[in-house]
Structure formats: structure tokens, C-alpha cells
Amino acid sequence: MKIYLHLHNNPNQAEAGTPNMASGNPLFEDTTSKAGVVELDPPHQVEELCQGMNDPNSQPSMKPNITVVSSNFRELLECPVCLNAMYPPIHQCCNGHTLCCTCKPKVHNRCPTCRYELGNIRCLALEKVAASLQLACKYQSSGCQAIYPYYSKLNHESQCGYRPYNCPYAGSECTIVGDIPHLVTHLRQDHKVDMHNGSSFNHRYVKSNPHEVENATPVLDLVFHFAQVFSCFGQYFGLHFEAYQLTSAPVYIAFLRFMGDDVEAKSYNYSLEVGGNGRKMIWQGVPRSIRDSHNKVRDSFDGLIIHRSMALFFSGGDRKELKLRVTGRIWKDK
User: Fold this and answer.
1) Which of 9, 60, 90, 115 has the maximal Cβ count within 10 Å?
2) pLDDT digits over 260-303, tens only?
3) Is the residue at 6 inside a domain?
4) How far apart are CA 276 and CA 327, in angstroms?
5) Nearest to 165 by CA among 181, 186, 179, 182
6) Using one digit for the tens of pLDDT, what is the confidence trace for 214-226?
7) Which of the pair, 228 or 23, is modelled with greater confidence?
8) Which residues form a coiled coil (predicted)?
9) Bigger pLDDT: 212 vs 186
């Protein structure tokens, strides 16, 4: 289904020297002789049509018939400067060329297409037609079958459960994104993370100069260790171990992250245990989804926290070498 605009122009109202609003804009040139009419509403009514674009409670449509938008029309909704989809207010010059509200200040009030002065003209026709569209989520190929109004689609896609995951390895500024199988392969091949099968684990951490952490700043991680990835219950979990400064005290923190969404993560529990010299510390919790960054998990103290003095006590010996053995297990709620 293609959508057309038919504008009713009164030639008697044209004035000499007034730029032609239809000149150079295919939105107006291609539709004057075609069937289908869109009547323009006052600006406040157009804004009411668009008010759902940032509403997180907007509900998707599961209608089997999707409004098919031609590639030419998609181009009309694309800003010529940033090439992103345009949202109200959509601006246009006196010749009808459009651009988004974000880019308008960047072009110094000059149309990037014809160089005419932009002014403050709204393209209400394009805004209303966009408000009438329902489009499939861009992650449809990954499994999302929802259909959203044009102005709600962007907000949905930022939270869509089928959107790709960021690489959970925080030891470097890794920009890789993808689904879970892709990230597991990436962690193994590119970050050399150890892979293990089973729901129980035993990890040893050794550092010859544990006093280094005293020189850390509150925002500097001297040690980050994506220790291991475990495969169990048909899912993947990552064990993190990190040294950092908590106010003025050097500490270590260990926690487990679930390689999947938060809803699934809440189906599992895990425990961590560390000890030595007749002492023992135990932590039990719910693994956090890798949707949450490791900084967010760490800064919420959602894990086993060990102060350096206690870690050295667990290590035994002359307290000059850190030797920690972290054991744990993962189980699924019944």
C-alpha cells in the first residue's frame, strides 16, 4: 500500500516572488495527480497524533496486515543531513525540502538542499502521514513480531528484547554486539575467556603484589577479570572478579552475570564462597543480566565483596601474595 498526499492549491492566491512550495520536493511533485487525499489538521492536532512517540506504555499491534511503505516514501521520512528517521517537529524550507529538528541548528538556518533560509515552517503533512503508519520492529529478523506506530517504534526498539547484546567483557572498550551464541564465540576467540560446562565452579585468583590496589582511584580498575563462562541449563553465565577502590578502602568483588535478558535471569540463583585460615564468607544472589553493565552491577554492590585485609588473611602466608579460591554453584528455581 502506497500513501500519497494531495494538496489543494488555489492558483489565485499565488503572489509574485513567492517561492513555489512544491518546487524540488518529490513529496509534492509526485502526488498532485494521484488518488488519495490527506487533509491537514491544525498543529495541535498533529502533535496529539504524535504524542505517543515517547510513551513507554504504547502497546504494539499484532495485526497480520502491515502497512507497506514504499522505498520512496521512506526516503521522505529520512533527514538529508543525519540520514535518520525524522520526528516532530519536522522542518521544511520555503521550497518544501525537509530536515529533522536535531539538524536544523547545525545548518545555520540554511536549507542543505537549496540553500534558502529555513525559517520556522513545519511540514505538518509529513508529520500526519508518519503518524498514520504502523511499522514492524527493525529486529523482526531476530524474532520480534510486534508492529508499532511510527512515533512509538524508536522507543520500542531501544528496549526490544530481541535487540543485540553488547560484549560483556569490560577489560577493554569492546564495541562488538550480537546475539548470545555470537558473543560466546567472541569471548572465547578474541578475549581468550575460559569456557566450562556445569553448574559448579572453582576459580583461583593469584596476584603477587596485592598492595597495588591501594594506588587505585575510585574510577580506575586495576584488575578486571572476566574469569570464566559456564554453560548449564542451556544458558551461559559469566563470573566476574574485580579489584577497585571503595571510597578509601581497596576491595575485591565477585559476581555472576546471566547472558540473556533480566526476566530469564530471575529464574536462577547462585552462591559464591571464599575462605581460608578457618574463616569463610558466603554470598547468595540472583545473576544480573548482561543488559546491565559491569559498572552498574559493581556500583550497586550486588556481589561478594572482600576487603583487601580479609583477602590477605584468607591467603595465609606472609600476606605478600594474594591467593583466593572462589567456589560457587548455579541452580534454577523450580
Assistant:
1) 90
2) 999 999 999 999 999 888 889 999 999 999 999 888 998 899 99
3) no
4) 12
5) 179
6) 443 333 333 445 6
7) 228
8) none
9) 186
Structurally, the chain folds into a number of domains equal to 2
Q: What pLDDT shows up at residue 34?
A: 37
CA–CA separation, 237 vs 180, rounded Å? 11
Residues 219 and 252 in one domain: yes
148, exposed or middle or buried, with CB in 10 Å at 0-12, 13-18, 19+?
buried
Q: Among the three residues 112, 138, 159, which one is the final residue of a domain in this structure?
A: 159
Is 56 in the same domain as 129?
A: yes
CATH at residue 70: 3.30.40.10
Instruction: Compute the mean pLDDT over every residue in the chain, rounded to the nearest whole number.
Output: 76
Q: What angle do CA 10, 11, 13 make, to 5 degrees?
A: 75
* Full domain range(s) for residue 64: 11-159
- Alpha-carbon distance of 88 to 99, in angstroms, equals 10
Q: Are residues 197 and 289 in the same domain?
A: yes
Q: Is the pLDDT of residue 243 over 60?
A: yes
pTM, full prediction: 0.66
Q: Give yes or no: residues 115 and 176 share one domain.
A: no
